[in-house]
Amino acid sequence: MDQGPAFFDVVLRQRACRDFAPDPVPDEDLARILEAAVHAPSAENTQPWVFVVVRDADRRRRIADLNRRLWDGGAGLHSRPRLAADLFAEVDASVRTGFGGAPVLVVVAGDGRDPVTRRMLGASIFPAIQNLLLAANALGYGSALMTLATVASAELRSIVELPEGLEPVAVVPVGRPARRLGAPRREPAAAKTYLDRYEA
Amino acid sequence: MDQGPAFFDVVLRQRACRDFAPDPVPDEDLARILEAAVHAPSAENTQPWVFVVVRDADRRRRIADLNRRLWDGGAGLHSRPRLAADLFAEVDASVRTGFGGAPVLVVVAGDGRDPVTRRMLGASIFPAIQNLLLAANALGYGSALMTLATVASAELRSIVELPEGLEPVAVVPVGRPARRLGAPRREPAAAKTYLDRYEA
Q: Is the pTM of this model over 0.95?
């Protein structure tokens, strides 16, 4: 099987996609993307991740409605002065079109029923999500790490029927990008790297 | 420049390395690894990561001592029944040899001085750490996501002179693996994946 493009071409070009084409995402591509996800490390190798792949239009609409309600109810106002104007407009548009019209939303949850696992849930779930984003990119899909809807944890759980204890940590839209994505905007690593000790 | 092995070959083979050869890790390789790290997404694109690359033998020893103290002081006893016997023995040995004798320890911190950024610190830092682990792997290095030493946050901060507010979230050893690493032990994604709704 084709093992995808060269690693650094994938990792240096991965960025958030906020506008999707309606093209379907075949099950076999999603399976490869999620297989990459579960190869991430987790505390004590507990692998506490759960993925609910939401294809159903009604459930996607309910998640998008929840996300928009949270955005309009304060998160948008809060983010406005913190984001560049063009980025804010892009995020705002994607909220209004239901995660940019993505044909698939992956609700990623973490199993926090064990208190120790729960304390380490971020360390154990976000590496898997990053693998998911990268693998989607490697297969030519767009994706994005969205956490806003998880603020309304109980409501999000109820939409995808997650029991208490399985905590949603992200909603990741997946689909073909509506247009070619630009390069990610990042400060160079050198600006964030110190040798042996931090210096202000 | 060589863009590395095929993406899926990297992502499906990445696993924790706990025993390192003493071979040096050149600055240019570390720079590539950290450039991959900073290409991860972060909440509001705040990029709140800080990397302290610890090469100095004395500081590495102090971090290793702290880690061993926490392990011997309870974490090891706690993990023993939770880990397979061979994995426990491997982790225990790596604690005693100072992160398996890795020539470089990267202390990864997150800038939590802004309360909103702080709340999202896990979502904003662990994707970068996963990129770091994968990029190390792509260049033939071993690495591991270790969080135990961050429990003693103030002490770890003091060793690498991080001010309050820059919160250590992981210590990542990097070096050539002492021996060929086996495949990661993971349950298949299908066991963790649901369509449209979770079903117990």
A: yes
